[in-house]
Automatic annotation (TrEMBL):
It comes from the Eukaryota. This is Carnitine palmitoyltransferase 1C. It holds the Pfam family CPT_N. PROSITE patterns: ACYLTRANSF_C_1 (PS00439), ACYLTRANSF_C_2 (PS00440). The lineage of its organism: Eukaryota, Metazoa, Chordata, Craniata, Vertebrata. GO terms for biological process: carnitine metabolic process; fatty acid beta-oxidation. The gene is LOC115377735.
Amino acid sequence: MAEAHQAVAFQFTVTPEGIDLQLSHQALTEIYLSGLRSWKKRLIRLKNSVITGVYPASPSSWLFVVIAILATMYTRSDPSMGLIAKIQEHLPVSQSMSAQCQTVVSAVLFSTMLWLSLIFTMRLCLKQLLSYHRWMFEQHGKMSNTTKVWMALVRIFSGRQPLLYSYQGSLPNLPVPAIKDTLKRYLESVRPLMDSTEFERMTKLASEFESSLGHRLQWYLKLKALWAANYVSDWWEEYIYLRGRSPIMVNSNYYGMDFLYVTPTPIQAARAGNTIHAFLLYRRKLNREEIKPSRVPGTVIPLCAAQCERMFNTTRTPGEETGNETDIQYTHTVPWAKVRKEYFSTGVNKRSLDCIEKAAFFVTLDDDEQGMMGEDPAASLDRYAKSLLHGKCYDRWFDKSFSVVIYKNGKNGLNAEHSWADAPVVAHLWEYALATDSFQLGYNEEGHCKGEVDSSLPRPQKLNWEIPSECQEQVAQSLAVAQALADDLDFHVFSFRVFGKGKIKKCRMSPDAFIQLALQLAYYRVRNKPLFSLASMTRLFREGRTETVRSCSNESCAFIRALEGGEAADVCRRLFRSASEKHQHLYRMAMTGAGIDRHLFCLYVVSKYLGVESPFLKEVLSEPWRLSTSQTPIQQVELFDLVNHPEYISCGGGFGPVADDGYGVSYSIVGENMINFHISCKHSCPDTGAHKFGAQIKKALLDLLHLLCPDQSESKKTEASPPEDKKDQ
C-alpha cells in the first residue's frame, strides 16, 4: 500500500503558465511516519545488537571499567602492568594532543580491551557451565552440592535482564556421541521389538558397521561439529523437511486449537481483527527482542531461540532439486515447483504471489462453523481438528510459516509449517495471541472490537490472477491428491477429565512418564506388540531442534507383559516404576545430546555424500514409526488463570500420522485435572482406528491409576459430558 500512498502524494499538471504542482498533506504525513517507523526499527535493532553482543555484561559496564582504570592511575599505580604506556607509544603523534590527554586515551583503549576480554571470558565460562547436564539426572528433591554450586555460578554469569537472543552466543554446541555408545543404545532400543534371530542379525550388522565404515563417517561429523553451530539441524531441515516427497498438508504441518469452552465473540470479523492485532503485537516484541528467553521449566537454564527468527514474513518455496543419490537427494514438490516457475514467475501472478509469500502470515476467513458444539460435541471436536489440519484443501496456504483460521462463528485456530520451527515455538506465539485477544484487547458488549475505527487506514486490495487452462488442470490434479489425503485422515480429539497430573503426582510419579506408559499399554492392547517413539527437544544446545526418544524399553515391555499376564499387583508396581525411571532417563539422554536417531541420520547423510553403502544404516533409516507422540506443554502459565477461569483453556494441537499404518498422538497436560489427546491415523489401514485407540488410552490411564493408587482410583467413574461452548461477549 505504500506505493499507492506515494502515487497520490504528488500530482502535477502542465499548463501554459508552467507546471502546477499539488501536494497531498495527508499522504506526505503517512510517508514521513512510515520512514520514521523504519528508522526506529533500525535503531532498535542496532541497540539490541550491541546489548546482545556484549552479554552477559552490559554496555554501561564499559564506563565502569574505564572509570576504575582511570581512578587507579590517579593513585599512581599501574593496573595495566605497562600496557597503557605501550599503547601510548604507538598512538599517532598529534600536536593538538597533550601528554596527559594521550595518557587518558591510552587508558580508555586499554580499558576497552580489558572489558572485551572480560566479556569473552564470562561468555566462555557461561558456555562451559551450560554444558553441564548432570543436574538433569539427579533424583528429584536431592540436589548434590556440585549442582548447587553450579546453579549459583550460572546465576552469577547469566547477567541481568537478557533479551531474546542474549544467550545465543553462550549456548554449547551439540556434541557428537561416540559411535560405540550410539550403537549400544540402538541395540538396546530394538531388543524388545525383535526375536532372537532378528536381534542377532542386527547386532552383527552394527558390529560390522562400527569396525569398518562407522569411524570414517564419524570423523566427518566431528569435523562438521567443530565448524558448524549444530551438526544436525541444517541437514535435518534440508533432507527431512525441505526435500520431502509427500505433500506437507497432513504429513508435515500441524495445528493449534482455540479455547475449548469459550468463544470470546461470535463475530468473525471482530475475532479476526483482534487475533491479527495480537500477532502483530507479538511480532513487534519479537523484533525488539522484548520476549523473555525460554528456559527449562523451574530453572534458569536458557533454551535456544534461533527458531524465532523466521516466525514472521517467511514462506517455504518449492524447488525441483534432484540428485544422483536418490535415496537422500530426492525431488521436493515438483508439480508445484514447475507450475510456480512457469505461471507465477512474471506479470500479475508474480506480484500477487509476492504479496502472499512476503506477508507476515496468512489469514483464512472460513465460512464453516467449528468448535465443540451441537448435540455431539465429541464429534464436532474431531471435525474441528481435521479442518485445522487440512481445511477444504484449497483455503489454506500451507507453505507459509503459519496460517490463522477464523471461522464463521468466531472460533479460530492455527496451521503451522514444520520446516522452520517445532511446535513449542509456535505454541508460545499462540498462547500469547489467545491471551492478548481475550484478556487485553477484548470486545464490547455487542461482540465487536473495542476502540474507534481509523478511517485513514488503507482498504484491503484484491489480488488479481491470470490462470490459463493448462495451469487449472495442474491445480485440479493437485487438489484431487490433497482431497484424497484429507478424506483418508481419521481423527479423534478428547479431553480426559477423570483425573490429571494432580493425582498422578500424589502417586509419586512423573505425569509424562505415566502418560507415556499408558500410551504403550494402549498400543499393545490394540496391536498386540510393543512400539513407541516420542519427540524430545535439544534446545539446550545452539540451533537445537528435536531428538527421538525410543521409550519402548525392556523395562516397559516387562511391565506390560506382567500386567497383561495377570501378575501380582506388587510385581506390576515395581516393574512400572522401573519402566518409568527408564523412560525419564531416555528422555534426559535425548535432551542432553546423547540420543540415537539424529546421530545415525547424520552418519547416513555423510555416507551418501561419500557414495558408500551401509546395510546397517539403510535398515535403521527405513524403520517405520508406527506410533509417534509429542507433548505440548503450556509455557506461559502466567497468562492464564486456570484456577478462577478454568474455561479459558486451549485443547492444544495435533498432527497427522507418520506412517500409513500408524498413529500420531499429541497430548497436553492442562492444570491439575485435565489431559487433552489428539489422535490421528488413516481410514485406509484396517488395523488402525482413532476412536478405538482413544478408548484404549482412556482404559489404560484408569488401569494404571488403579494399579498405583487403588485408594485414589475412580475407575468406575464415567467422564462427565463436556460443558457447551460459551459466548463470552
